[in-house]
């Protein structure tokens, strides 16, 4: 059996502790405040948007919170129930707080990746974690994540108003590959690599999110029964949902991400398509390791001309 930190307690149901939690946020407002973090209120959101580029407050806010007092909590309508925006009290820095089960694999993986020296590794592209706040009596934990400055992390990877230059696009893809190499080096499989689980700060930085399906392995079998994910590799479809090699499943999903990113950015790069072909091999044993993918990517970039071009002049 794989050793997955945080999931060894037999007294907990595996599916229950790794499913998404939906806390009653007002109940934890004072606990978070004692640890130096404040959940966003109506007043906070009004102040944030009044200082933003256009000063326009979203329609959902005006409708949903028109009758609330300024100190009422104000959840972001664009986030799921397990996430809440807030601020660090000491300096007003924006944060996002994620609620997870205290014994979940996600908490264990994020703790592991956020521990020195891993958190300082330049190949680590996790969103920086500012604090872990545990509420043992409720089997709950809060992961307090840093928000990008001056802009917030966004899942809209391509700025509609600014064409994405090829060199910047390839640099973004390299970060995506590099972080997967980093995880695999430390025996962590993400297991839900997709565009929807990638965010950017529009300052050249990209980060993976949502480690709800991720696992850390430490010897023994790595087969995962009843595997569920966004990008399902063919071997899982042929084995009634079992995943024989989670690391090679990541390789498959990363190839799909690269191709979808090309379409989203408006690039058709023959060398990138060629790079993904072995990654999409139906036999997982014949797929390259991510170390090999990164080396092949760097070799590919070194021979592509005109890296400052825009999508409408893409090298075919």
Automatic annotation (TrEMBL):
Q: Where is the Protein kinase domain?
A: 46-316
> Which terms are listed as keywords in the entry?
Kinase, Transferase
- Keyword Signal in annotation: no
Query: Where does the source fall among the domains of life?
Result: Eukaryota
The UniProt entry, under SMART domains, shows: S_TKc
> What PROSITE patterns does the record point to?
PROTEIN_KINASE_DOM
Cross-referenced InterPro entries: Kinase-like_dom_sf, Prot_kinase_dom
Q: What is this protein called?
A: Kinase-like domain-containing protein
What is the species listed in this Swiss-Prot or TrEMBL entry? Answer: Mycena belliarum
Lineage runs: Eukaryota, Fungi, Dikarya, Basidiomycota, Agaricomycotina
């Amino acid at each position: 059996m794989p050793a997955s930190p945080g999931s060894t307690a037999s007294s907990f149901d595996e599916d229950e502790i790794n499913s998404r939690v939906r806390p009653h946020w007002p109940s934890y407002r004072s606990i978070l405040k004692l640890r130096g973090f404040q959940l966003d209120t109506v007043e906070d959101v009004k102040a944030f948007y009044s200082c933003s580029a256009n000063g326009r407050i979203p329609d959902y806010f005006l409708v949903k919170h028109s009758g609330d007092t300024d100190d009422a909590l104000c959840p972001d309508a664009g986030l799921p129930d397990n996430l809440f925006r807030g601020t660090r009290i000491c300096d007003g820095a924006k944060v996002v707080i994620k609620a997870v089960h205290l014994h979940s694999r996600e908490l264990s993986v994020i703790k592991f990746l956020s521990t020195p020296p891993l958190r300082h590794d330049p190949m680590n592209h996790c969103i920086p974690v500012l604090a872990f706040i545990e509420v043992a009596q409720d089997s709950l934990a809060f992961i307090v994540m840093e928000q990008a400055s001056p802009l917030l992390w966004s899942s809209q990877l391509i700025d509609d108003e600014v064409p994405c230059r090829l060199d910047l696009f390839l640099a973004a893809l390299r970060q995506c590959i590099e972080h997967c190499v980093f995880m695999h080096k430390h025996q962590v499989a993400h297991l839900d690599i997709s565009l929807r689980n990638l965010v950017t700060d529009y300052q050249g930085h990209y980060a993976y999110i949502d480690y709800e399906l991720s696992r850390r392995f430490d010897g023994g079998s790595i087969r995962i029964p009843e595997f569920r994910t966004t990008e399902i590799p063919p071997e899982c479809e042929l084995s009634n949902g079992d995943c024989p090699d989670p690391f090679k499943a990541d390789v498959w999903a990363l190839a799909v991400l690269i191709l979808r990113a090309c379409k989203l950015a408006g690039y058709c790069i023959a060398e990138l398509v060629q790079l993904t072909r072995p990654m999409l091999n139906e036999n997982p044993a014949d797929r390259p390791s991510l170390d090999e993918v990164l080396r092949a990517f760097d070799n590919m970039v070194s021979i592509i001309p005109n890296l400052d071009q825009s999508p409408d002049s893409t090298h075919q």
